[in-house]
């Protein structure tokens, strides 16, 4: 295994972030401007065994650099120093989606917003005739403000590139998220990425993977038989795992997971349109429920006010009349001190005949 130096070109190596079969990703700091970056290198041993891998490595960086989108990690430069081939990209703070999926505290709305952003990023790639071919939670980082960033375009393919970079019959992709056409080593397209997103959505919304082989071989066989063996119907309905899953969301996910490419969304743009439509419908429903609930509370309050209003009004009128009478008498006594004597004199005159 290659020993990682403390300095590569103009970058000081801070720590290793991850490692694959042919290379690794390092956290580094650019000497001059003190900018932290993620630096991806090829192992020198791999280059000796596979000389053509340098061409593929540079092609990966070139494809990723051509996609400028807030949810795709930006590439800064492609370099070689002391026999080490590398490229640098933005260092993204966050957690990989694998960890995010395990955290069940996020709402359906939060998860939906994340996949809308992912679909938007892939829609840009597909519009440039670039397919990722290895979409999986491990290749996506969720930032602190819940923005997904697609990281690895290691086996990305340009549909406009006539150059054959892979051997015929060579399977590329991660088994759990692999589309049937990848397992068959048949032609891949934008619909292949759609399948990968469908697997990720199924897992994110239910907490379980739709395909559950025990090893890579079983998973590939399962994918080869998917849609062809009637005894194996495929993924169980999402609503059987999480009963609150909306029917429309399940329809969208299962359209992504169709075994035949022709039955899926053709591109991420088509998927994006349906996800956004579902989000709008869900927000409208939530608003209507809120308005109805608020209106019901207001109606109840008005009825309660009505039930107390008239008795209160009658009591107030009686009190006002009584208070006014007492106040008038008090005022009269203070204003005309002789009033009491006059009233008594009148009373005597009134009773005079009976006193005889």
Descriptive overview:
- It contains ten helices and eleven strands.
- The chain is of the alpha+beta class and 356 residues long.
- A six-stranded antiparallel β-sheet has the order 1-2-3-4-6-5.
- Helix 4 runs antiparallel to helix 6, helix 6 runs antiparallel to helix 8 and helix 8 runs antiparallel to helix 9.
- It starts with 6 loop residues before the first strand and ends with a helix.
- About 3% of the residues have low confidence.
| Spatial shape | extended
Strand order in the sheet with the most strands: 1-2-3-4-6-5
Which residues form runs of ≥5 with pLDDT under 50?
Answer: 162-171
- Which range best describes the helical content: under 10%, 10-25%, 25-40%, 40-55%, 55-70% or over 70%? 40-55%
Structural class category: alpha+beta
Instruction: Indicate the radius of gyration in whole angstroms.
Output: 38 Å
**Number of helical segments with 4 or more residues:** 10
The main β sheet shows up as: 6 strands, antiparallel
Spatial separation of the terminal alpha carbons? 139 Å
H/E order of the elements? Answer: EEEEHHEEEHHEEEEHHHHHH
